[in-house]
Predict the 3D structure of the following.
Amino acid sequence: MFNPQVYSARREQLRSLLSGGLVFLPGNDEASMNYPANTYHYRQDSDFLYYFGHNHDGLSGIIDVDESKDILVGDDVTMDDIIWMGEQPKMKDQALECGTGNILSKSKLGEYIQDAIRKGRKVHILTPYRGDRWLSLEGIFGMKHAEVKKYVSEELIKAVVKMREIKDAGEIAEIEKAVDVAWLMHTTSMKMAMPGVVEQEIAGTVEGIALSHAGPVSFPVILSVDGQTLHNHHHGNKLELGRMMVTDAGCETQMCYCSDITRTVPVGGKFNQRQKDIYEIVLKANVDTIAAIKPGIFYKDMHLLAARTIAQGLKDLGIMKGDVDEAVRQGAHALFFPHGLGHAMGLDVH
């Protein structure tokens, strides 16, 4: 975790961006694989991490805008929990670690939220993305999820996006740690891309590097000679000369900040002329866009710059025809560039 002042300052800034009420940020619960005690690797909700910092289940957070009060919601572990997991920190100590002295038992959470609703106060939540979250919110709010949806707050969404898209020095340092490990993941993938190797061997090695040097992968590894299929998670192909292999992979640090890099390489380590021509076009789009980026520039303009660069390169090779600017206006480049230029980095990628 960062120091407690980081989290309290973030919550104070969020308060300043909202008109009133209270914000409820539920943390994620464990998710079972095939029976309750056998769970998938735990991943905390990113917004809860951003404002409260703790990366384990059983917690939620309340940011009370009207009363300038922050509450960490959860319960101290039982003796059974200690036997299973060892000694765990007390709730009061966890609250101090994220910059607040206020705690609330989960058994009192529904009463707190429902009391605010009865008093006509605004209650802000972000859009849930898990089915179990909708079910838990039904119990906390005392209403069906169709009614809970009314509390999804556009005001809160915009405020959170405004804050999270700007990174402080500590966040940048965490992202750089993740990128350093991603460099090792990708250079290893390049070296292993030899004829006769099965994709799964490389994908498994890449994921192992993430776990050995940082944390889990930041999304399931995409590694395939069929890179024309976006987000292809099949790893059963055997590599052959003349094919290209795409690796789209990154890792998380212990604080869940992510890297995400995509590279395409020739099987065997050498481009043929056709592959080199296409690679150079993509490289030019990358380099030219990086050179054009500066404060005040819109992302869409950078995306269209890359699109024009790619369209011009393909026209020079005889693959596209006509006026490049008009082709981009009509979206013809999307036959070859069917996705966005990039995306934000931080606690979430992909």
About this structure: The chain has 13 helices and ten strands. The longest helix spans residues 169-192. The longest strand covers residues 244-249. The chain has three domains: 4-164, 167-269, 271-343.
